[in-house]
Amino acid sequence: MAAELDFERPIHELEKKIAELKSFMEEKDIDLTDEIQRLEEKLSRLENSTYSEMKPWDRVQIARHAERPTTLDYISYLFTDFIELHGDRLFGDDEAIVGGVAFYKGLPVTVIGHQRGKDTKENLRRNFGMPHPEGYRKALRLMKQAEKFNRPIICFIDTKGAYPGKAAEERGQSEAIARNLVEMAGLTVPVICIVIGEGGSGGALALGVGNYVHMLENSTYSVISPEGAAAILWKDASLAKKAAESMRITAPDLKELGIIDEIIEEVKGGAHKDPKRQAEEIDSVLESSLNNLLSMSQDELIEQRYEKYKNIGQFGFVNDSIVVK
Q: Which residues form a coiled coil (predicted)?
């Protein structure tokens, strides 16, 4: 059973009441059709108002939903003949990032993405989707391989951030992320990035330098988590809801700021409600983006990527100093 989110509680209570009435009607052979129909109409209105007026913190909750589809879920729906490749050829294999080669509508592509678990055991194995440096080096190895064989690259972003542990720092976490940023900026093949859950800090950006960056409607993309921002700004992580509202981390905000290219509409209530239909929504945007990029030359791809990131933000002068607003 799906976990209940705070803002969805009235919806679930009404759904439960409708289910109880239907069960009672069958058991007692009493006609409650009119009452059930009235409640179902009320439920439809409640769902429409709830999901059309979500606050940033509501979207954060959906982005973190335990049953939200992962990279491997979308790979199974969108691609064929996926072959996962392992290891960075330097240290080991990091299961917090998955990647390999596949076919997309008959076209060979390289697919890479963060991968978290669906339960405690898998989360421990995948380090809760927080990569070590070998994960980013594996991703870069696959990107360079894709460039060698002229395969488009598709990245799925879904991480709270890069793992901040001592071992990760000792093995060069910051260097691995920085190298990915530099190398991705100069790739000569199309790169499409899609934020499917949480996009946290440099851990997300290390797979996020692309010709197109798209976001699912209820995903988030930010330099720090709302809890982390609240702890820094107000010395109180419990003010995360307030921080989420001021950080502008949701897809509509980032689209307005020009940081992402397109918002991919989610099924009502979030992608976890119907992963297959959500994959169809992604498929439409992915196909369109890929067709646009495949018509470009290598130099045009690099130039388009450069212009995209150069134009993010508004530049101005304050006291003879350049600032970004």
A: 11-49
